[in-house]
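Whiteboard transcription, Tuesday session. T.W. wrote the structure tokens on the left side:
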């Protein structure tokens, strides 16, 4: 997807505004996925009975 966007800008099929919006969407999507993974790991630790913060109780 990224390479097509770069080619589109190079061949003047897409403008810089379009590319900027596309990059913002890609970065936001990446961030949302990373947050979802962290929540999933937190839920897994809570279900197992471990500390939600990930530190070991001694």
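and on the right, the sequence the group agreed on:
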């Amino acid at each position: 997807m990224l390479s097509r966007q770069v080619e589109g800008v190079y061949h003047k099929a897409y403008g810089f505004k379009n590319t900027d919006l596309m990059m913002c969407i890609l970065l936001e999507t990446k961030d949302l996925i990373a947050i979802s993974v962290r929540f999933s790991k937190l839920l897994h630790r809570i279900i197992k009975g471990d500390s939600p913060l990930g530190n070991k109780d001694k």
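Someone added at the bottom: Residues 16-48 form the longest helix (33 residues).
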